Amino acid sequence: MKQFRRMKQWHILGLLLIAAMILAACPAGSSAPTSPTGGDDTAADTSADTSSEAAAEDSGGSALGDRDPKTLIILYWQAASLPGPYLSGGTKDQDAGAVTLEPLFNVDGDGNFVPKLIKEMPTVENGGIAEDLMSITYNLIEGVKWSDGSDFTANDVVFTWQYCTDPDTGCVSLESFEGITSVEAVDDLTVKISFEQPTPFPYVAFGNAQSPIISEAQFADCVGAAAQTCNEQNTMPLGTGPFHIVDFKVNDV
Questions:
Q1: Domain of 50?
Q2: What percentage of the chain exceeds 90 in pLDDT?
Q3: How far is it, in rounded angstroms, from Cα 45 to Cα 53?
Q4: 163 — phi, psi (to 5°)?
Q5: Are residues 50 and 128 part of one domain?
Q6: Are the C-beta atoms of residues 115 and 105 closer than 8 Å to each other?
Q7: Phi and psi at residue 109, in whole multiples of 5°?
Q8: Residue 47: Cβ-neighbour burial (10 angstroms; 0-12, 13-18, 19+)
């Protein structure tokens, strides 16, 4: 029991450290709050900025030391085996992959749907969900690129389903695709998912860190038994997210 509590404490600490690192990696795009009185605060801010710059120059580098401000550092309770969910050994791998791999939509802390790669959430009211509840159609955002600069299209969504549902792939996220009979690219920006029976809640596949989209062009030769042998693809997957992976060491601590 003591060991379980200790592991839980490390898990919580790891999650807190991840949050801190992500916040630290985000660019400081927002400006400081505007003072209601003006002048004095402006002078104080300028002085503080000057002092910070001087301190950085005196130390021989930036306030971040030798670290690249565009590099995301994740401290976790256990090293990731792979940056992605499909051949993963747990949530640590899903979280590691989530910095670059994205689902069509996500769910925030309040339980609200957040579109990521789609224009809006499909509903019966807007025509995205069939009235008989046998299918759901997603309209993709135009202009989304993979981290190598290639176009993200509906074919990538179809391929992701084919990749994971191939019985020889060994995909651990099969539950995300239960009850689906087909995933069809209606055109480059439209995906239709059909179900084997009426599905009142169709928002499972491609809607969380367990089922993000992977690049068809990159993983085309990695379906079925070949999936386990694709070291470069599995350790450095292309993504549509804010970061891209340039190097990955398996179980590196």
A1: 2-58
A2: 58
A3: 12
A4: -60, -50
A5: no
A6: yes
A7: -65, -20
A8: exposed
Question: Does residue 116 sit within a domain?
Answer: yes
State the CB neighbour count (10 A cutoff) for residue 159.
22
pLDDT in tens, 37-58: 344 443 334 333 433 343 333 4
Q: Two tokens at 129? A: 């969900």
pLDDT of residue 88: 87
CA-derived radius of gyration, the chain:
22
pLDDT of residue 68: 64
Same domain, 51 and 147: no
Position 89 scores a pLDDT of 78
> How far apart are the C-alpha atoms of 119 and 121, rounded to whole Å?
7
Closest to 174 (Cα-Cα) out of 183, 182, 184, 164: 164
Residue 29 has pLDDT above 60, yes or no: no
C-alpha span between 136 and 132 (Å, rounded): 10
Secondary structure (DSSP) of 155-186:
HHHHHHHHHHHSTTT--TTGGGGTTEEEEEEE
The reported pLDDT for the residue numbered 67 is 56
Token pair, residue 166, equals 């191939």
Statement to judge: residues 112 and 211 lie in one domain: yes
| Residue 66, token pair as written in the block | 């030798």
Percent of the chain with pLDDT over 70: 72
Q: 153 in the Ramachandran plot: left (φ > 0), alpha (ψ -120 to 50) or beta?
A: beta
**Does the pLDDT of residue 80 top 90, yes or no?**
no
Please tell me the total count of domains within the chain. 2
How far apart are the C-alpha atoms of 88 and 72, rounded to whole Å?
Answer: 21
